[in-house]
């Protein structure tokens, strides 16, 4: 059999690439290397800007030319780093040599030895990962996540008054509204969104074992802790003062646990929407030219929500693994995190793909109000809760002598289908006050929704 041309092994880089391509700018190997270059360059600019070790501040033109190595990072730099790493067998050392080449081209060989000065590879790596993960979350993942929340919020308001039969344990239950049920998901997701948006992205820059030992030997008079803090925060990160060779990755574990939590809420949403479609509560809007089934032409399958389920499960499994493994490093350093962190993009990619499917799926459904009404009208027995609760209140108020109202309604309704006429007859014979009786006689399954529409207002509209 003839071998295929080189193919992407992951579906995220193949079939689904268009949905996740934005993450590649940050969480690919090239994105990581661009961030490494940025950190190396900014450290040079910091050292020279503070006239460390006899250096002089660079000119604005020199700074711009150095920063362009990261800002304009592209295929030539990717190819050159591959050549350098083939020789060095070390990815961060290859980045250092690339920066030195730029210094040589700019006539700045006199500061070449300040490249990667007093830095261990993990000083560069931890900052590069913090920068790339932060950018991927804030520039790509969160906007899509917020778009799903916004669509849910809009539909919650749209369907706030549309009564529907609830189905606790899959059985007919006290009615709600479709809008209130969607609002529940929007509210849950909004809380997690705020937690994710508030993530601390920590960084360290303190040498081989986090002690500033080499720094202090090089310049005993410098306040290296202050320098480290200034440098890390200048990158838009939070400084971690107490580390081993590595930044301890706790912020990553916290972030990935929160995203996995968001994934699981989204999974719950996908399964509920799928069920509402199965019940007929939502009609799917066919896409022109799309095929639902290869043999059954009538079908419009809820594939957006099924695809989302599978990708959310994959994402959560990877995020759980990342969160569990990254917080452990043997003694002052081992390299288990190196391979692990290279899968951050895969974990977020499956989540992003799921978000894309959910957003598109929510845009392709429409509420069948007639079916909701018919379903409610076929289940008058659900008013048993209302009747027995009113009886309890009447007994407590001294307007009824009925013993065990719950048992009375259980005998009437449990496991039975009864209609409006049955309940009207039952209520008319009850020993309760006139006002209470009138309220019950006016009640229908479609109006027994409490304050469900008003609960949607807790979401707001922003």
TrEMBL record:
GO biological process: IMP biosynthetic process
Domain Adenylosuccinate lyase PurB C-terminal: 329-449
Matching InterPro entries: Fumarase/histidase_N, Fumarate_lyase_CS, Fumarate_lyase_fam, Fumarate_lyase_N, L-Aspartase-like, PurB_bact, PurB_C
Annotated keywords: Lyase, Purine biosynthesis
EC category: lyase
Documented EC number(s): 4.3.2.2
Domain spans labelled Fumarate lyase N-terminal: 58-308
One Pfam family this sequence matches: Lyase_1
Signal peptide start-end: none
Sequence intervals crossing the membrane: none
Keyword Lyase listed: yes
Record keyword rRNA-binding present: no
GO molecular function, one term: N6-(1,2-dicarboxyethyl)AMP AMP-lyase (fumarate-forming) activity
Pathway(s): Purine metabolism; AMP biosynthesis via de novo pathway; AMP from IMP: step 2/2; Purine metabolism; IMP biosynthesis via de novo pathway; 5-amino-1-(5-phospho-D-ribosyl)imidazole-4-carboxamide from 5-amino-1-(5-phospho-D-ribosyl)imidazole-4-carboxylate: step 2/2
Function description: Catalyzes two reactions in de novo purine nucleotide biosynthesis. Catalyzes the breakdown of 5-aminoimidazole- (N-succinylocarboxamide) ribotide (SAICAR or 2-[5-amino-1-(5-phospho-beta-D-ribosyl)imidazole-4-carboxamido]succinate) to 5-aminoimidazole-4-carboxamide ribotide (AICAR or 5-amino-1-(5-phospho-beta-D-ribosyl)imidazole-4-carboxamide) and fumarate, and of adenylosuccinate (ADS or N(6)-(1,2-dicarboxyethyl)-AMP) to adenosine monophosphate (AMP) and fumarate.
Name the UniProt record assigns to this protein: Adenylosuccinate lyase
